[in-house]
Write a structure and sequence with these properties.
By secondary structure, this protein is mainly α. It has 2 domains: 4-81; 87-115. It has helices spanning 4-12, 19-48, 58-74, 77-81, 90-112. Helix 2 (19-48) packs antiparallel against helix 3 (58-74).
Length: 115
């Protein structure tokens, strides 16, 4: 499988990467998005709460995001995700089903407690 960078560039150039390349590229980009979203939320809550940190400054979080993207772009999406996050793995699918059951139970309890 090509690197995430190669897949993205090929797509931008009008090529049609194979289905699995696109599947894994989509999951890799989704994972990167989650990391960035969590970092932004942490910056916002720290700012709201008046917290400061010498290590986890907004600039340091930006550098972490940049480095994470650089690593991801240089690897194949499947390699970046790792075997624990491979949607073709039965273990991953079982873990996902368990997580969804827990999530759905929590949502049902929240909605059941609404007036």
């Amino acid at each position: 499988m090509r690197s995430l960078y190669e897949i993205l560039e090929a797509t931008k150039a009008g090529e049609k990467p194979d289905y699995d390349e696109l599947r894994y590229a989509l999951l890799a980009m989704a994972a990167l998005s989650v990391f960035d979203s969590m970092a932004l939320m942490r910056i916002a809550t720290d700012y709201r709460d008046g917290k400061t940190s010498n290590y986890l400054t907004p600039w340091k979080r930006y550098e972490e995001s940049f480095n994470r993207r650089k690593v991801a772009l240089d690897k194949s999406p499947k390699e970046f995700l790792g075997s624990a996050n491979d949607p073709d793995s039965p273990e991953y699918q079982e873990r996902r089903r368990s997580s969804l059951r827990i999530y759905n139970n929590i949502i049902a309890r929240i909605e059941g407690s609404k007036p």
